[in-house]
Write a structure and sequence with these properties.
The structure is a homodimer. By secondary structure, chain A is α+β, with helices and mostly antiparallel strands. Chain A has helices at about 10-25, 35-45, 50-60, 90-95, 115-120, 165-175, 190-195; strands at about 65, 70-75, 80, 100-110, 125-135, 140-150, 180-190, 205-215, 220-230, 235-240. Chain A has seven helices and ten strands. In chain A, a hairpin with a 4-residue loop joins strand 8 and strand 9. Chain A is elongated. Chain A binds a DNA duplex (30 and 30 nucleotides) through helix 1 and helix 3.
DNA sequence: GCTCCATTTTGGACTAGACCAGATTGACGA
DNA sequence: TCGTCAATCTGGTCTAGTCCAAAATGGAGC
């Protein structure tokens, strides 16, 4: 898009371009594993440190990703995500020709953290229903979510099948539909717990999306703390209509 | 927020925590420069490579940032940014008690790129008014923007003072106000041109925000390609009201 | 065919340097 | 006082390894 730098790009740049080109040509399929670091460093006739520097840059660009102690893989295309849309994860992913999956890690009633109390506008030390889940796209863990529900609106929810979409549960069991939404997006590094769930290295680049959801009566019903692998999504917000 | 890992965190982790703690305590002021890498590596009794690994992690977390060949600095607090709001950059920054500044790099009539044509819904090879600017907060370059305006709506704009807010120019000179907005947020690595303008290293983590703006008559008037230093902002979207 | 265990492979972390080029700085002269 | 230039400092890049622990693998035994 701009003029090419005339000066040499160095070994790291060479490796980066070579791998990027191979990926672009489709020679390395999405989610395919790259050769071992040692093998690649031989291939490019360099040290592992230099090679890893190049891999890190490709990771930052979102072309490849790493699974902790498991190796490097080619990033599939990003999924478009509109936090304002009321469709649930499965519908959104399937609409884009991909295969979603959800795994429940924990579901329990706990004292809310200070942050969550503030988001839900609850008094200090309130209890909330906390649900932790990992979401996959085409088998790859891309999203770690912590849902925090105001228990007043969802009696007996912990007895239900939480593998189902929460959106469906809300509507089917409680007659609650999503209304207004507020959300915040912050680029961060993955903390240990989220990293573990995503099979990523702690400190990996990620996108934190915090949502506060209201129902059709404008009551705050829950908040989600989402942690996305940074190469997995493209947030796309289209406001249907805007009133003055 | 979760249980601490019991196993040793290693040298990198130790350095990370030590620096994070010093920054948290305010011993290193925002935008203050860290000691030279060699000095820090002596201080922590390790090699520069290991030290740089720790600095990179802190960079990923958004605690520190780097200026190309100039050193490492402490990141100031993030600025909240609502891409749906119609306030301009200066107003937004000042409202948060910070000092904004804008610099115009280029302003000219050029053939639009394919991407820009698509965003503006213009036929191929259309000309657009391209304005490239760098925005600062408290002296630090945080945003590189490329505005692309449909020239049909802005005759003679290139003769005007472009240091002023575009929002003001639109309203004052052309009677055009912002209406509906669509935007996309993607975590990327900085390309060479944006990196240069932001005094960052090419490949640094960044947030790309692409906006397509319409006026009060719902005509597409321009699109912005924004590149933010990833530690500088927190995107915060509050939808005022939502119609079905 | 399946489980379990030992071996091998692989990524994670770290050491101890070197060389280069851009940025900073301070001394010198106009 | 100010601008120029040279010395110095500093980050950017790279070499050539080592040690460790987790993951993958493949074979033995049931």
């Amino acid at each position: 898009m701009s003029d090419a730098p005339s000066r040499s790009i160095g070994a790291v740049g060479t490796i980066r371009q070579a791998l990027a080109e191979q990926i672009g040509q489709g020679l390395l399929p999405p989610n395919g594993k790259l050769p071992a670091e040692r093998r690649l460093s031989e291939l490019f006739d360099t040290t592992r440190i230099t090679l890893r520097e190049a891999l890190s840059q490709l990771e930052a660009e979102g072309l490849i990703y790493r699974e902790e102690r498991r190796g490097w893989f080619v990033s599939p295309a990003r999924v478009r995500y509109n936090p304002l849309a009321r469709t649930h994860f499965h519908a959104m992913v399937e609409a884009q020709g991909r295969t979603p999956a959800t795994e429940v890690l924990q579901a329990r009633l706990v004292p809310a953290s200070g942050e969550v109390c503030a988001l839900l506008a609850l008094p200090a030390l309130s209890k909330v229903i906390q649900i932790r889940r990992v979401r996959r796209i085409d088998g790859r863990q891309v999203l770690y979510v912590e849902h925090n529900l105001n228990p007043a609106y969802f009696p007996g929810l912990l007895e239900l099948d939480l593998t189902r979409s929460l959106t469906e549960l809300y509507a089917g069991e409680y007659g609650i539909r999503y209304g207004r939404v507020r959300f915040e997006i912050t680029p961060i590094a993955l903390a240990a717990d989220a990293a573990l769930a995503l099979r990523a290295a702690a400190g990996s680049p990620a996108l934190q999306i915090t949502r506060v959801n209201r129902d059709q009566l404008d009551r705050i019903i829950d908040c989600d703390l989402e942690y996305w692998r940074h190469d997995a999504i493209q947030v796309s917000v289209e406001v249907p209509e805007q009133t003055e």
